Amino acid sequence: MITTKNITKTLLSLLFVFILSTPQVFSQTYNLNNQASKLTVSGTSSLHDWDIDAEQQKGQIVLNTSNELKIEKLTLDVTSESLKSGKGGMDKNTYKALNTGKHKSITFQLTEVKDIKSSGNDNYKTEVVGNLTIAGVTKKMTLNLDMAVSSSKVTLNGKKAFKMTDFGITPPKALLGTITTGDEITITFSTVLNK
Q1: How far apart are CA 175 and CA 177, in angstroms?
Q2: Measured torsion, CA atoms of residues 85, 158, 148, 142, in degrees rounded to the nearest 10
Q3: Where is the signal peptide, in residue numbers (predicted)?
Q4: Mean of the per-residue pLDDT values for the chain?
Q5: Please, which of 15, 25, 81, 146 could form a disulfide with 157 given CB 3.0 to 4.6 Å?
Q6: pTM, rounded to two decimals
Q7: CA–CA distance, 165 with 85 (Å, rounded to integer)
Q8: What range defines the domain where residue 68 resides?
Q9: Nearest-angstrom CA–CA distance, 34 and 192
Q10: Is 183:193 a contact under the CB 8 Å cutoff?
């Protein structure tokens, strides 16, 4: 004769086995929202300062929220020929300098998270290291990010200056070399990633 005690015991055993066999998923994946994100490359020339905006980018961040917040993955991919200044001649010189016929994308791939510090209200000051590849040349780059996290969205804001020649790029020239571009550029970004 089966007693209520035995049925309860069996059900509790089954429930325990079910809980143990179910993986605890704490990782959350967010994908870059191209429409909401902005990335601008700024520089100087002998004539005037200039800006170029990226019209096509994609990427992903994976956060682990099991105990403290961790970044498991961060990637960014900008289509080289989606960089637009509004001036056809300048864009053409940019694509030539980046050798876009051969190198279709500018990419960033996370390799290390150095620091994540909470600044309150789900905002974090983050220092990450990753491989930045431009025109086929890869360099290790440290980025300081302001990161805001919600259940459905992650926003990354930051700025990074470096030299084009670090990536083997000769700063573009125009009008038979009478206009020269400064070597240092600054990338400013506000990247929105949605779940």
Answers
A1: 5
A2: 130
A3: 1-27
A4: 89
A5: 146
A6: 0.84
A7: 21
A8: 25-194
A9: 8
A10: no
- H/E stretch holding 122: none
Percentage of residues of the chain with pLDDT beyond 90: 72
Establish if 55 belongs to a structural domain. Answer: yes
Residue 184 domain flag: yes
**Is residue 13 in a domain?**
no
pLDDT in tens, 98-144: 999 999 999 999 999 999 999 999 999 999 999 999 999 999 999 99
Q: Give 35-84 pLDDT, tens digit per residue.
A: 999 999 999 988 889 999 999 999 999 999 888 899 999 999 999 999 99
N- to C-terminal Cα separation, the chain: 52
Token look-up 């309860």 returns 8
> What does the block give as tokens for 1?
């004769």
Q: How many domains does the chain have?
A: 1
Q: Which residue has the tokens 């990419």?
A: 107
| Token duo for residue 74 | 């961060």
- Separation CA 107–CA 111 (nearest Å): 13
